[in-house]
Amino acid sequence: MKNLTIFKAQPDELVEDVTITIEEASPDFPNLAAAARFYHRQGKALVDTLWACLPGGTIDQIIAELLRRRASLFSVRFDNSA
Known about the structure:
Blueprint: H1 32-53, H2 56-70
């Protein structure tokens, strides 16, 4: 099991310690709508937790890194000559 320690936001006494456990595979879904609802809830729960606990600089870097890794999804060719 991988263990990662991240510093929390200050003031320390106002931010509770959090443990995030990632251990099970996603379930099978009966349809795309069910999958969308599931991933929306999972994503929102994770973001809510991180937002409440992490320093703003760490949040900024998470956002930047996620966008960098998914940038290829946003690439659109505008040149129609090919």
